[in-house]
Amino acid sequence: MALIAIVTYDTPENDRAWMTRDTLDSLSNTVDLHKHRLFIVDNGSCEETLSLIRVLPNRWPNTTLIENGENIGTARAINKAWMHREPDEVAVKMDNDVVVHQDGWLDIIEETFLREPSIGILGLKRKDLDERPGNPISHYQSVLHMIRQEKGERWIVVEYVNHVMGTCQAYNPLLLEKIGYLEQGDTPYGFDDALSAIRCKVAGFKSAFLPCIEIDHIDPGGTDYCKWKTDIAGKNFTAYNEAKDDYFNGKRPIYCGPEGRPWGDSTNAHIENKYLTTEQRAEITGFLIGTDSL
Predict the structure, then answer these.
(1) Would you say residue 23 has pLDDT above 70?
(2) Distant-in-sequence, close-in-space partners of 221: CB < 8 Å, separation ≥ 6
(3) CATH for 65
(4) Mean pLDDT of 84-113
(5) Mean pLDDT over all residues of the chain?
(6) Would you state the pLDDT for residue 190?
(7) Which has the closest alpha carbon to 159: 195, 200, 119?
């Protein structure tokens, strides 16, 4: 069983409502929601998107909607969904601009974690990324590896990399025991996927792509919204490098709480346990609509 978390922040200006629709259509065609769970976390979208996602909990099994009413940031919104994760449940962060073309891809991810538990983060690979074996730039060099196979098991090849792009990432429950939740700084967007790769490495796990699963990144880019996100990331680059150095030097705890801060930060003081009671979940998560039992 896996928990998929998708964040929506669709406005008339950023024109992402159609991407959300195509992403959810892809999920309904490729993921067994009788087996896995879907959480949609909305950060204040337009009526077009709200009219779509508000009806899904009543139409799709194991589907929950969390409405924040404002843009609290992607990582923090994902964390609100992950707070409902069971201890042995794979957690997926998926953007609302990706279409997956292979049925049962999430089952293959689960199987990969079971057969290769040293992998902490496993992602689906976009076609525009630079990671490949033999890339002369060391950061983008990758290694293909066939995981252990017993007779009768499917052949699975992974691509070990330094960083798994955040378009669609799955997190091993064993890794989440050590790192908790996604980190988010003082702005709604930033380097949560890059920082997760570092925390994964410090925790003793590997990052990898599952390149056999074909996906398409459907955001054409070039919009004012994309530029806005890029500008925010650029302004946070110094803070990212400082955090990266602190992680590697052991000065920064790798465990983050649901608020997106390293464990021990005052913003997490009200949360005592990694796995919360039903009452704690409801209090911190906010307004939920869902068919599954909370």
Answers:
(1) yes
(2) none
(3) 3.90.550.10
(4) 98
(5) 90
(6) 76
(7) 119
| Residue 287 pLDDT > 50 | no
Number of domains within the chain: 1
Residue 233 pLDDT class (50, 70, 90 cuts): confident
β-pair partners for 67: 42, 287
Instruction: Name the residue range of residue 154's domain.
Output: 2-290
The single residue listed with the structure tokens 């691509």 is: 159
Q: Give CA–CA dist 82/117, Å, rounded.
A: 20
Quick one: pLDDT band at residue 98, thresholds 50, 70, 90? very high
* Structure-block tokens of residue 5: 């978390």
**Six-digit token string for 81:** 């969904």
> Taking the CA of residue 204 as centre, how many other CA atoms within 13 Å lie in the half-sphere pointing to its CB?
4
